[in-house]
Each structure stands twice: as C-alpha cells, then as structure tokens.
C-alpha cells in the first residue's frame, strides 16, 4: 500500500506515509496489528490523543489526517533519546551520586569523630566537677580532723590537770597522815588548812564533747543539670552546591 493508492482512492486526507525501516532491521518486522492480524505495524501516530503503533488499515480507518510517522524512524528517535539518557546517567548522574555517596560515608566518619571529641569534653568537665567535689570533701575532712585535734587537746589538758591534782592530793594526804601520827607539838596546834588543798576543793569543769551530724547539701542544688553545661546539637546545613536537578530518566 502506498501514498499514491491512498490518495487515488480518496480514503484518507493527504498525509505522509512512509515505509518502515530501522537500524535494527527485522526486530520490527515481527510486530503485527492487534486489530488487523495479517497486517504489520508499520507506522506510529503522534497525535496526542493516540500515541500508538498502527498498520496501514488503521491509518485509513482511525487515523485519517493524524500526524503519522514511519515506525522505524520513531523507534530510532526513541532509541536515540533513551541512549542519550543512558549516557547522561553514565557521564553525569551516576558520577555525581557516587561522589555524594562517598561524601556521606566521609560524614559518618566525621560525625562519629566529632561526637567522640565532644563526649571527651563532657567527661573531662565531669571529672573536673568530681575533682572539685572531692577537693571540697577533703577540706571538710581536714576541718573535721582539726576539730578532733582541738577537742582531744582540750581533753588531754584536763586529763593532765586531773592527774597532777591527784598526785598533789596524794602528797598532801601523806603529809597529813604523818602529822596525825606525829607527837603533839606547838607546830601541830598551829597547823592551818593546806592552801593547796583549799584550791583543789574546787573541781575542774566537767566538759562534755559532742559532734554535730554531717548536714549534707542538696545534690540537686549543688549539681543541677542545666548548670553542668549545654547539650550539643547537630546542625544540618544544606551546602550551596549547584547540583543538577534530578529529572525523570524514563519517559
């Protein structure tokens, strides 16, 4: 069937009808029309409402006046378009995406390293706080030991005084016992009360030593979470790179 025959029979409006050829040859020769089983699909209707492969009978019956092209040429055009998009994937898109993927891998390493650094900063700060609390504790312990030394020193002084008084009392008693057992004499009659004995009749003050309990400070007040330091936040910033917009690859 040819253009002259169509025009002679006036079965269709004038349009270009061309034989099917393609650089893949016989691969299109096997395509037959589903409506006309014995006819091969030789053309392609480019009308927006159609966009389908047609045989010569279809052109006459349903596609009068439509923009009909040779199927081989349409095939080659589509194949060239697909090849162009395939090349774009190989030369532009894949390299870019692979580069971005490598950058993401590097980011994983970089973020993990940074997290470790900040964690060490927090641990160092916590150790300083522990060190400060330990230093305060040591100061309190030293103050407590000073209180102990002061109390023990006072107790030891009272003890020494008592031991000294006991020794003197025993000496005075010995003297008194000797006088009692001695022969009466004028010295005995004139003997007055021992002055030291009079002093010892006033006993040292009995001092009791007590120690207050440790009044612990409120831990929540001493170390409040919001006073420990800030909680670092990861900020996401889109880099100002001129990335090519991703577009549909398959039409």
């Amino acid at each position: 069937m040819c253009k002259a025959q169509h025009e002679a029979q006036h079965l269709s409006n004038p349009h270009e009808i061309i034989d099917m050829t393609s650089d893949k040859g016989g691969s299109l020769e096997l395509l037959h029309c589903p409506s006309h089983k014995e006819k091969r699909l030789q053309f392609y209707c480019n009308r927006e409402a159609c966009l389908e492969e047609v045989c010569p009978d279809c052109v006459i019956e349903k596609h009068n006046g439509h923009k009909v092209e040779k199927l081989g040429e349409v095939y080659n055009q589509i194949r060239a378009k697909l090849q162009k998009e395939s090349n774009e994937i190989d030369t532009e898109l894949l390299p870019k995406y692979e580069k971005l993927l490598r950058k993401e891998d590097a980011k994983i390493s970089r973020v993990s390293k940074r997290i470790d650094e900040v964690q060490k900063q927090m641990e160092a700060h916590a150790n300083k706080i522990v060190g400060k609390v330990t230093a305060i504790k040591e100061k309190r312990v030293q103050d407590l030991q000073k209180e102990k030394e002061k109390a023990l020193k006072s107790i030891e002084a009272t003890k020494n005084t008592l031991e000294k008084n006991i020794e003197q009392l025993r000496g005075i008693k010995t003297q008194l016992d000797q006088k009692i057992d001695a022969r009466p004499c004028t010295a005995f009659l004139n003997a007055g009360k021992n002055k030291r004995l009079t002093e010892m009749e006033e006993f040292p003050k009995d001092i009791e030593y007590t120690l207050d309990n440790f009044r612990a400070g409120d831990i929540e007040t001493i170390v409040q979470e919001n006073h420990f330091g800030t909680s670092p936040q990861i900020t996401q910033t889109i880099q100002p790179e001129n990335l090519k917009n991703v577009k549909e690859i398959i039409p």
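The CA atoms of residues 155 and 208 lie 9 Å apart. The chain has seven helices and three strands.
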